[in-house]
Amino acid sequence: MGAEDELLEAVHDSHADALYRYVVRRTGDEEEARDVVQETLLRAWRHPEVLERSEESVRSWLFTVARNLVVDHLRSARRNREHSTASVPDRQEHDRTHAVLDSWLVADALLALSPDHRAVVVGAYYRGRSVAELATEHGIPPGTVKSRLHYGLRALRLALQEKGVTS
């Protein structure tokens, strides 16, 4: 062990506990305090000329470095965006597999309808159009829209039953 290492060890023994308490008071986080003290002592090791100063000067330098590290951490974007937690929150996400498969099944069954029936069923159930609106859109009387809707739904039910869907 060299003289610098012994000097650093002596600085650690003399100041690490006080630095730790200081940083805990500033951050309120024991883990962060350990990291800041470690980084402070690492910087002292990188600047051995600091360790050769008087005891008060070394202590002042260490506390200044620790304070600057705490301020940097508090200002960092990471601290502002990330929050630690003891447990990972559960995300309730519903399985949409059945809904997707059902929509494919209905879309395939709709292809089995005649174009006139399909247009009225899609207009009423997917686009939310009224009988009067559908009559105007397609240029047919409202009674014809009702009839196509009735027979279109009946044909859709049969197409779905052929695909194995039961009512």
Automatic annotation (TrEMBL):
Family: Belongs to the sigma-70 factor family. ECF subfamily.
Domain RNA polymerase sigma-70 region: 13-79, 109-157
Domain of life (superkingdom): Bacteria
The organism's taxonomic lineage, starting at the top: Bacteria, Bacillati, Actinomycetota, Actinomycetes, Micrococcales
Name of a matching Pfam family: Sigma70_r2
Keywords, ordered alphabetically: DNA-binding, Sigma factor, Transcription, Transcription regulation
Source organism of the structure: Myceligenerans salitolerans
Matching InterPro entries: RNA_pol_sigma-70-like, RNA_pol_sigma-70_dom, RNA_pol_sigma70_r2, RNA_pol_sigma70_r4, RNA_pol_sigma_r2, RNA_pol_sigma_r3/r4-like, WH-like_DNA-bd_sf
Protein name listed in UniProt: Sigma-70 family RNA polymerase sigma factor
